[in-house]
Amino acid sequence: MKILVCVTSVPDTTTKIAFTDNNTKLNKAGVTFITGPYDDYALARAVELKEKTGATITVLNVGEADTEPVIRKCLAIGADDAIRVNAEPTDAYFVAEQIAAIAKANSYDLILMGRESIDYNGGQVHGIVAEMLGIPSISPVMLLDIDGDTAKITREIEGGKESLEAKLPLVLGCQEPIAEWKIPNMRGIMTARTKPLNVVEPTGTDKLTTVASYELPAPRGAVKMIPADAAETLIQLLHTEAKVI
Amino acid sequence: MSVLIFAELDEGKIKKSSQEAIFYGSKVAEMTGTSATTIIVGPADDTELASAGKFGATKVLHATDAKLSEPNGMAYATVVAAAAQQEGSNVIVLAKSSLADAMTARLAGKLKAGLAANVIDLPNISNGFQVKSSIYTGKAFAFNDLKADVKILAIKKNTITPEEKDAKASVEAFTPTLNDADFAISVKSTEKSSGDILLPEADFVVSAGRGLKGPENWGIVEDLAKALHAATACSKPVSDLDWRPHSEHVGQTGLKISPNLYIACGISGAIQHLAGVNSSKVIVVINKDADAPFFKSADYGIVGDVFDVLPRLTKAVQAL
């Protein structure tokens, strides 16, 4: 079985977002970049399937050269090789085209990625890739087992969950608790240095969507504290002052 | 520039978030000098379908094929793409949801569309087509230029307040050609809580964290939620500990919600939790730790023991 795991390189979840260049670029100063948390779940489940079935894992990132530490970490966790498409990943359709082009050339049985990136939060790339490849897509996937050429899946729906089956090949957007995140060990870190990381140039159409500028939310006003022994006052304030209830 | 709005049903009724999407779509239609058509899939009676007119739609296309009775993102995308083709629509509007997420992407792939998710304001069409969306899990906004001929806008809940008018939409049957490939995924079973208020749709949310000390104490959270007609939610540690189901987890790696009122009980307010709830209109924080960082992001705060405060709030709501 051949598994493609697509990963994003995103600011650490604790990052306070700020912009530079007249609000047209993320201020990367002092920001730590990590593998997208949802992508980490996808990779962890791929590594478990590799241990169980002898699958091979290729990790794919659409990003510029500064994402390579994140890709190397994925190799250290258990991916066999990596591909970086040398482009800034700002448009879901454009990113999907890059992934689909590589998938068409290599015939993967499973294409796994996070349910969404935590920067643009679009949650769209997996579905567009699957549509381009003419295969099913399922998201957000909480449990995944492979039985021959059939995937058994549990996905989250509003207010519950749903059990599904589908034949491979498939594109899946993953989330917890599909697997426990993996931490690279020393042996993994050493071997990652020698694993292939191929850089290819982007193909396809121009970006269909671009970001003209960014903005930060207006800060909230000062908190109004209510003494605990007059807690009931809160309900009156929500009713008469905030007018939400 | 015709506008097509996909409206989602919940037990035969147009979801509130879809009413917002219809109103949003009708405003875009007004701005572009065209009309708003709504596509609805699945069983619903004509009165409910015609009620799309209250929110600005002039026509409803209704697809009722038995194969479409269960939500299916792939098949629904085929239906909406066919409706867009019939209507000559180059702007498609829908409310962000679990079903919409699955559908929007397939639709964008089919139509080679530019799309913006988590849209929070009407477009600016004075020079091109620009929409504002929420990014970085609510920590920032982007102004997106949509350059493709077809544009898809997935609207974040609670970002536009529909004005209702006394009008009915005309209703037409719509019979698209369905693809066998759209039914390649078979649903084996579904577990869904019934009767509860769906968290992503809720106007009020009462949420709790480790400060509740254990799942056996959730009764006081549920009591307040019931009195307020609110949904219940939880922080990530609570769902990680299996005190509550993952579908209630709000935060950076859980649901992102934007209710009118979010009451956080015994949650300290890590930046990852805040990211999922900071679009709430009013935030109330109840925590016995006066230094809990969440108070800095709250509109109202109570430093106190949730086991004492929550039952008193429930009684006060019941007395309203």
Query: What is the domain tally of chain B?
Result: 2
The chain pair forming the largest interface, with residue counts per chain, is: A-B, 81 and 93 residues
Shape of chain A: globular
SS elements, strand count of chain A: 15
CATH superfamily of chain A: HUPs
Strand order of the largest sheet of chain B: 7-10-6-1-4-5-11
Number of H- or I-type helical stretches of chain A = 6
Q: Structural class, from helix and strand content of chain A?
A: alpha/beta
- Compute the number of helices of chain B: 8
- What is the straight-line distance between the termini of chain A? 55 Å
Topology:
The complex is a heterodimer of chains A (245) and B (320).
Chain A: E1 2-6, E2 9-11, E3 19-20, E4 25-26, E5 33-35, H1 37-53, E6 56-62, H2 68-77, E7 81-85, H3 92-106, E8 110-114, H4 125-133, E9 137-147, E10 150-157, E11 160-167, E12 170-174, H5 186-192, E13 197-200, E14 209-215, E15 224-225, H6 232-240
Parallel strand pairs in A: 1-6, 1-8, 6-7, 7-13, 8-12, 9-12
Antiparallel strand pairs in A: 2-5, 3-4, 9-10, 10-11
Helix pairs in contact in A: 2-5, 3-4
Chain B: E1 2-7, E2 9-10, E3 13-14, H1 16-32, E4 36-41, H2 46-50, E5 59-63, H3 73-87, E6 89-95, H4 98-111, E7 114-119, E8 130-135, E9 140-146, E10 151-155, E11 170-173, E12 186-192, E13 204-208, H5 219-228, E14 231-234, H6 236-240, E15 261-265, H7 271-277, E16 282-287, E17 300-303, H8 306-318
Parallel strand pairs in B: 1-4, 1-6, 4-5, 5-11, 6-10, 7-10, 13-14, 13-15, 15-16, 16-17
Antiparallel strand pairs in B: 2-3, 8-9
Helix pairs in contact in B: 3-4, 5-8
Family (chain A): Belongs to the ETF beta-subunit/FixA family.
Domain Electron transfer flavoprotein alpha/beta-subunit N-terminal (chain A): 23-207
Protein name (chain A): Electron transfer flavoprotein subunit beta
